Amino acid sequence: MFAVLGLFALFAPFLTLAANRIVAGEGIPVWAVAAPEVTGPGLIAIALSLVLSLPAALPKLRLIGAALGIVALVWLLMQGSETLLQGAGTYARVSLGSGFWFLFAILLLLAADALSYLAPGPLTRGVLLIGTIAALVLILWSGALTDLSIFKEYASRQDAFFDAAGRHLGLAFGSLAVAAVIGFPLGVLSHRNETMRSAVLPILSFLQTIPSLAMFGIMIPILAWVGTTVPGARELGVAGIGFLPAFLALVIYSLLPVVANTVAGLEAAPPAAMDAARGMGMTRNQRLLQVQLPLGLPVMLAGIRIVLVQNIGLAVIAGLIGGGGFGTFVFQGLNQTATDLILLGALPTVALALVSAITMDILVELAQPNTTRHQ
Amino acid sequence: MSWANLLRAAVCGLMLALVLRPEWFEPMFAPFAPEGAAIIYDRASLLSLSLSHLVIVAAASVAAVFVALLLAILVTRPSGKAFLPLSRTIANMGQTFPPVAVLALAVPMLGFGSGPTLVALFLYGILPIFENTMTGLSTLPPATMEAARGIGLSRRQRLFQVELPLALPLILTGIRLSVVIAIGTATIGSTVAARTLGEVIIAGLLTNNTAYVLQGGLIVGLFAVLIYDALTQLETFFQKRLGLAH
């Protein structure tokens, strides 16, 4: 099935060439992006990778095929963008076409499919993840793709990009840290006190329901009011617009997964283990730290995974209220109808979310107590 | 539980008043509007924006429910088993894509307006329902399935009379997740010129008119909370009917 889809994708426009960064480009099929002696090997490699995906019983072969295909795609991009730009005018832009995206998606799915069959252990997955990131960084660093439009957008706002990246990470990870500091004790208290639990969890899930744009919006007047009435708050940078309202909104969204998963994690300790701990004369805090915490760690880490992925996505909206982050590029791009500027904001966000999700999945698996693994 | 119903009625009333008679709230919002600016959003009627918001969410969600159920049923049949691991991976990884990014990426392909928002909401909405239905259908108690086979139910009968009803609470959880995300993402759809309540919030952000921001934010927030609550009630109802509730 993938092979058929992949063949169709080969006929879709691979790159588009436009006179400048705003107008819609003209699609160019993959065999025409460069001289035949350049595209030929690339096409053969992609075809080979699709053929390698056919034997269903050989997931390793499929994985190698997918990797080969992706290498071929990158190579075609490098050659194609350079050739197309020659003699096309100073403002000409080469963007990624639908054919590229389809092929890329199909090859990634092939790789994901092969990996889900192979079911590698957490360490192997970690090595694969680091390897992929290293390859990506190497390609970006080498400057091989600088002719593509998205990298021209990057080149013209290099400083702003790293600024935004820092802001984005600060928003996502900072709010997670604050939420963990507030949420963990709240979770422990809710675990011990039934009344508290029945009050805290519904309130937090109610807050979680509020649409993000509304939440960011409502934070603005509250913080503006604090900034003007509380003495000294303004000097600390408390204001209606900017980093702080976005940060606070993210903290509020993060609380539910942290608290709910802390409670669930603490309850995950089997009664027998708790009885044994009590029988050994452990105090309540000792039981918490030495029995419940280690046993509940995977569930709590799963909560952190939810928060991290959610915050990386939501931090994009901070761009709308002057909070910075990759959202700035996304919304600037939307305003200027400059597709590649949108991509410059959206792609790093997606990549960041994916990497965090995979990393957290690996950590969750590593935190599983040995007993459950042997069962 | 009557106090809960009372609260529900009050919230409903507040929402209707905000949508239908916004002028009643003028004194409340007045301190937030800049001098001389309009206090109540008047570039479009709040009612038409609300309706358009709800229609976009409803259309995307209904389509997503159909597609997600169909796909989940297909991959849990014996003939579709080969796709089950891949489906899990796609559902799992797909949900890490930020909804805003999906929306932003839909624009270059589909242009501005309500269309891309609808498509983005639909595509994103499939995942939670698909994942939950898949989990629901593949973790049924083996004894029940054995019994269903034992009393001579055909495959189709087993699906409609046993499997789907048993998976229903989990499916509904997926639908609720999906709808709540859709309401929020539709709000952001206004940045790509979809007609939703986000328009009010964004107009407020652009003109520094906090009164608009509050107005739009309150209505959307109340919508989301009410719909979330209604779907939770539905879930508890079905759980009770199945005898699963405590």
Q: Explain this structure to me?
A:
The complex is a heterodimer of chains A (375) and B (246). Chain A is mainly alpha-helical and 375 residues long. Chain A is 75% helix and 4% strand. Chain A folds into two domains: 2-155, no CATH class; 158-374, Orthogonal Bundle (MetI-like fold), CATH 1.10.3720. Chain A has helices spanning 2-11, 36-52, 59-85, 98-118, 122-142, 149-156, 158-192, 194-209, 212-229, 243-267, 271-279, 284-314, 327-336, 339-367, 370-374, and strands at 13-18, 26-29, 93-96. Chain A has a three-stranded antiparallel beta sheet with strand order 2-1-3. In chain A, a hairpin with a 7-residue loop joins strand 1 (13-18) and strand 2. In chain A, helix 2 packs antiparallel against helix 3 (59-85), helix 7 (158-192) packs antiparallel against helix 12 (284-314) and helix 8 crosses helix 10. The mean pLDDT of chain A is 81. The longest helix of chain B is centred in the last third of the chain and has 34 residues, at 155-188. The model of chain B has no long low-confidence stretch (mean pLDDT 84). Classes of the chains: A mainly alpha (375), B mainly alpha (246). Chains A and B meet through helix 4, helix 9, helix 12, helix 13 and helix 14 of A and helix 4, helix 5, helix 8, helix 9 and helix 10 of B. Chain B: It is a multi-pass membrane protein. Chain B: Residues 50-231 form the ABC transmembrane type-1 domain. Chain B: This is Osmoprotectant transport system permease protein.
